[in-house]
Amino acid sequence: MTAKADFEPEEWKTVVEGPPSAAMLVIMSQRGGTFRETLAMGKEYAEARQQHGQSELLDELIAARPHVDHTRYHSPEELREHVLEHLREAVAVLQRKAQPSEVEDYKNFTVNLAERVAGAHTEGGQAVSEAEREAIEAVRTAMA
User: Fold this and answer.
1) For residue 70, what pLDDT is reported?
2) Greater confidence, 19 or 56?
3) Which end of the chain is more exposed for a tag (fewer CB within 10 A), N or C?
4) CA of residue 93 relative to chain centroid, distance
């Protein structure tokens, strides 16, 4: 099994920041609901911690407090480009260091987190807005 100790500090930072970055992309894709969506991100991490033991990599990943500095981006487009590139880099790091099943677990956790965040607030009478669906699909594509 792969663990945090198998990564250089910068590599681990890239991996750890991937899922909350994906969630932030979804949060920023649609106005409104930021508080509920941020709470949903925390709840997803807390619930994942309850399922401790299935993957050492995921256990260490979710033990880290989710953090993304979204203030350094000047536009939603710049945020989107950075997040998608960040996810590609995280998956590339994992493909070099982790087992294929761990890479898939990481991808699944990241997409599930993005979906949970999207569903935390109803926009325009829809559980998940079109902009949020597009953001989730972009996350999936970046990690493919």
Assistant:
1) 60
2) 19
3) C
4) 15
Per-residue CA distances from 61 to 14, 46, 136, 141 (Å):
11, 12, 20, 21
Going by pLDDT thresholds of 50, 70 and 90, the confidence category of residue 68 is low
**What's 65's DSSP letter?**
P
Buried b (16+ CB within 10 A) or exposed e, 48-66: beeeeeebbbbbbbbebeb
Residue 79 is predicted with a pLDDT of 87
Q: DSSP E strands: which ranges in the chain?
A: none
In DSSP terms, which residues pair with 126 in a beta bridge? 123
Residue 55's pLDDT band (cuts 50, 70, 90): confident
Q: Which residues is 123 bridged to in the sheet?
A: 126
Q: How far apart are CA 139 and CA 132, in angstroms?
A: 11
Distance CA 105, CA 126 (A): 28
Length of the chain: 144
Q: How far apart are CA 103 and CA 15, in angstroms?
A: 11
Asked whether the beta carbons of 115 and 136 are under 8 A apart, the reply is yes
Global model pTM greater than 0.90: no
